[in-house]
Structure formats: C-alpha cells, structure tokens
Amino acid sequence: MGAQPGLTVASPDALGVTVGAFVDGLARAGVTDVCVCPGSRSTPLAMLLHAHPGVRVWMHLDERSAAYFALGMAKASRRPVALLATSGTAAVNFAPAVTEACYARVPLVVLTADRPPELRDLAAPQTIDQTHLYGRHTKWSIEMPLPEADERAARYARIVAARGAATAREAPAGPVHLNFPFREPLIPSLDGEPWSADARPVEVAALPRRVLPPELAPLARELRGILNGVIVCGPQDDPVFAGAVADLAATLGYPLLADPLSLVRCGPHDRALVVDAYDAILRDADLAERLRPGAVLRFGAPPTSKPLSQFLQRHDDVPQIIVDEAAWPDPIHTGSRVYHAEPASFCGALTAAFDGRRGIGDWARRWLSLSTRARSALAAGLGRDDAVSEPAVFADLAGILPEGATLFAGNSMPVRDLDTFFPSSSHAVRFLANRGANGIDGVVSSALGASAAVDGPLVLVIGDLSFCHDMNGLLAAKRHRLNATIVLLNNDGGGIFSFLPQAEHPARFEELFGTPHGLDFRPACEMYGLGYQRAARRAEFRDAVAQSMASPGVQVIEVRTERAANAALHQALWSDAAAAATEAD
Ligand SMILES: Cc1ncc(C[n+]2csc(CCOP(=O)(O)OP(=O)(O)O)c2C)c(N)n1
Ligand SMILES: [Mg+2]
Question: For the segment 203-240, what is each residue's pLDDT rounded down to a tens digit?
C-alpha cells in the first residue's frame, strides 16, 4: 500500500539519516548483535543493521524462537541484544521471551516495525495495535517518530538508541520496546555510510552505588548474637557474587545453601561452607524441624528447591533478611526485612562491618556433615544401576563437564534434578535456565543463543515436551553454525506431573497431564542437520557427551526413560539420602 496523497513520502535519505543514526547509536552503545526476522515493513532497520560494520545480524524465521535466541545470547554475554520483527503477529510472537526477560532481568532491545499512523485501525493488512504491545513487561516502551532527513531527527534517534540500551542494561536489567512506524517506500539510502550523520556521541554512565560498612553496622551487631544462621543463595547471575558471599559466610560461620543457578555451588571460590544436598536433607520433616536456624539471609531469586522453600516457611518466625537490587523475591511471605542493595556490595560491606571471622563452627559443621552423607547416599543409590536415568544424567555431567563449560537446564524436571543431583565442585561451570517465568517454550532457542555467546562447550538438558515445543529453534543450529550438545530426556510426556497429586487420578492422568506423544526424534534431528544418537548405559552416555563437546555442530543425545519408574527412583534416592543424613544427626 503506497503513501496517501498529501502525506510526506518517505525519502531514502530520511530513512538513511534517521534510521542510520539509530543503528549507529545502538552499535556505539554496545548492542552489536541483533536477531532479525524477515518482513517488509522492517526493511529500513534490517538493511541498515545489515550494512553497519559494527553490527552482527542473526537471521531467524520464527519470531518466538528468535526472541528466545536473543534472550539466551543476552544472558550468556551479560550484554543487551536487539531483536527486530515486522508488524502484526510477528511482533506479538516476541512476547514470551520479552516476558521471561522481564522477570529474569535480561537486557533486550526490542525493535518492531509498524504501519504509519494513517493506516492504523483501518483494516490495513498486517496492522495491529503495537503501542505498549508487551504491556508492563518492558522497562521502557516508546513510539518513534516517522523518519525525517533532518539533523535533529537523527540526533533524537541516537539519543533513543543510547537510552534504550542503557535502560535495558541498568539494574534491574530488562527489555525495552521501540516501535518504528515506516511509510513506503521502505528502501533506505545506503550511500556514503548514512549512519555517519551527526555523529556527536551520546554516552550514558550509570554508576553503581556501593554499600558502605557503617550502613550495615546495626545488622552486623544483630548477627553477632546469632551463631546459627543460614545463607540461602537463589538464582542470580553476577559472577563476583560467589566470592563475596563465600567471604561473608566464613565471617558469620553460616552455611551456604547454594542453588546451582546462584553460581555459588561450583567454581574456584571458597566453597568450604557450601551445602549442596539441602534439597534431599530437608525432605525429612524431623530434620527440617531440628535444623531450626536463628536467622536467614536470602539472596537471588526464590530457590528452585521446594523442600528449601518449605523449610523457610516452617521457620517463618525467625528473622529472614532478603537482599535484592530492587525486587521483592518473597512468594512465601516470610521475609522480615528487605535490603534494596547490590548483593555483592552488600556482602562486602557486611563482612567489613562484622568484627572478626567465625569460620566453621559446630552449627555449620553439622550442616556440612549432613550434606556430605546425603550426597554420598545419592551417589551410592545411583551407582546401583548402570542404565542412564534422569538423575544419573546430572551426576555424570558433573564428572565430565570441563572448566568453562555452560550447562543450560530446561524447565520442569531438568532444572530440579540439576539442583538435587549436581554436586558442588571447584570446576567453573556456568549454569543457566529460564527461571523468570519458568516456561517450557523457547528453551532450545535460549540455549542455542547462549551457545553463540560463550567460549566453552554448552550442554542443554531438556525434556521431550520442551524440545517439541521449540523445534523451530533448531533451524538456527545449521544456519549459524552453532556448537552445542542437547541431552534430550525423553520420558514420552510431562514427567513432572508424576510427582504431583494429579498422578493420583489415573482415569484422567495420561490424557490431561502425562500427554504421551510417541514421537521419534531421530528424523527431526536429521531434518535440521543435527547429529543424533541414543544412549542407554551411563558409560555410553558420558562418552557421547564428551565426544559431542569435542566436535563441531549440534548433536542430540537422546536418553529414554519411563515416567513412573523415574518418580519411583527419585523417591528411593530421596529416602536413602534422608536416612543417611538422619542417622548421623
Ligand atoms: C509454555 C509452557 N506451557 C506449559 C507449561 C506447563 N508445564 C510445566 S512442566 C510441563 C511438562 C514438561 O515436559 P518435559 O519438557 O518433557 O519435561 P519433564 O516434565 O518430562 O521433565 C508442562 C506442560 C509451562 N511451564 N510452560
Ligand atoms: Mg518429558
């Protein structure tokens, strides 16, 4: 549809100058990777992004997968990544990843192309209401003006680019949405580097506020009287947090109950106080009661482990102190005080404010010995069978993932089994998962996006329904020559539901919750050009993963399990672990 008579026709120069300045502004703000989906209305942005020497364009077909790919890249690189879609439902398909980015605090710069105002709400094709399309899931959402061949317009576009990137990045990080109306013709001038117009820099310097020790002197005094505190580390992604919280734990003499996604469980930092088997230990109600703490310090998002969350609820009358940059991560309503502060800085300040260093006393030693016993019982239980089981996958990965590897855990059982079965170690393994909104969608794409941004090998462990949900995401593997290993745990349906009360309704269970599909994934892998093999024995599984990590391309290693047997195995392992732990306490 052409421009209406009387309206200014878009000139190639106007597009080149304004959109060029915007693209240059993004690149200068450090947004160098953009996931682009094909479409016509987005042409000015697509062509200028593609032409700009400082930008790398990652093409994707499916907007939902594209957005999750960008999310994975942004998570792994800890930098904002941009996204571009044409108008209409294309833009709506970004919504799941934008939502995840909002809750998981991942910086995304979402660019959507739109029809100009005179075509809106008049039944024009591919035209929907895109203003504030992602609702309250963006930190900033604006409507751009129509491009003009004018220095002021170019300057404004540069400012929006700088501000958009900075807003996405600043704590708490999250998505921003910039909606671009474009009038036809849509082809921009690419002559003479159009982005060089008005290149005066726009710089944003967001300086973090450090917490100072005197500010935490009252808390340090309170904790002086409490020898039996615990520190709970939930999912968080700041790489310096582990060292800071480990130092705080040694100062206070408190055990560190560390979710793998906190990046505190594994790594070269001091792990002397890390308790890695709390999920198994705290399933025992008597033990959970006896381990009553005097205070709890909570960092990160709510932990994955349900027994840990129940432990915090059981002891809701003790001081529970939450430290978070800006949010209120307390779905169990047991927090008694919230500090809005940068967590690593808070740990440093509290350590400095506390007089002396308690080290490991009786209380921490008790937790550590329970944890060691429970962990040994889990390993012994798994050692009884050399068939690969869902829990064994994590125990085996812990043994073979090299320094610098990334383990991406799918939602549902994989992220829970990671918590229960992956022991603490000095290996610097990075753990990622989509825990903002816990969707089983977009997991393949998120992991592949992360694989494009990390240096070492990346292994994704994913359930069959989650894999199915995002098979379009596999298209990126060959197109972008990615390297990754996908461990596909195929229990022919939703294994998690076998652990829930729904499982006690056999007449409806399979149809409504188990949802078996009977799919053979080998042809799907072949279609997308991925390596494929099945592993039945643990040794075979470990060899397959090691070989895949050493090979280019994406390989799928399918492990077939049975849902009811998997639930029974978990029950047996949990009760072995609790028994071993209680025996000693
Ligand atoms: C997008 C989305 N749809 C539905 C759900 C609800 N859900 C949670 S777990 C699950 C089953 C996942 O099955 P699978 O990926 O095979 O993992 P398993 O439970 O077998 O470990 C479903 C449907 C969800 N979390 N996200
Ligand atoms: Mg499954």
Answer: 999 888 899 999 999 999 999 999 999 999 999 999 99
| CB-based contacts of 380, cutoff 8 Å, min separation 6 | 576
| Residue bearing tokens 């904790």 | 223
Q: Which ligand is nearest to the CA of 411?
A: 1
Cis omega (within 30 of 0) for bond into 185: yes
Spatial CB neighbours of 240, under 8 Å, sequence gap ≥ 6 = 344
In this prediction the pTM is: 0.97
**Is 413 close to ligand 1, i.e. is its CB under 6 Å away?**
yes
d(CA 479, CA 48): 21
pLDDT of residue 1: 44
Report whether residue 434 contacts ligand 1, using a CB cutoff of 6 Å: no
Q: Most distant CA pair in the chain: distance in Å?
A: 85
Q: Length of the chain, please?
A: 585
> Would you say the CB of residue 248 lies under 6 angstroms from ligand 1?
no
Between CA 138 and CA 25 the distance in angstroms is 20
Of 99, 394, 465, 490, the one to substitute when testing ligand 1's pocket (max ligand atoms within 8 A of C-beta) is 465
Give the whole-angstrom CA distance, residue 61 versus residue 155.
32
Say how many Å lie between the CA of residue 421 and the centre of ligand 2. Answer: 18
Q: Alpha-carbon distance 308 to 472, whole Å? A: 36
Burial of 526 (0-12, 13-18, 19+ CB in 10 A): exposed
What does each C-alpha distance from 183 to 43, 152, 156, 190, 481 come to in angstroms? 11, 19, 19, 17, 36
Q: How far is the CA of 430 from the centre of ligand 2 (A)?
A: 24
| 320-324, strands of its sheet edge to edge | 274-275, 256-258, 229-233, 295-299, 320-324, 337-340
In sequence order, the β-bridge partners of residue 406 are 430, 458
Atom of ligand 1 nearest to the CA of 468: 15
Which residue type is seen at 335?
G
C-beta separation of 107 from 69 below 8 A = no
CB atoms within 10 A of CB 148: 19
pLDDT (tens digit, 9 = 90+) per residue, 249-305?
999 999 999 999 999 999 999 999 999 999 999 999 999 999 999 999 999 999 999
Contact in structure between 465 and 493 (CB atoms under 8 Å): yes
Query: Which of 585, 363, 554, 359 is closest to 475 using CA atoms?
Result: 554
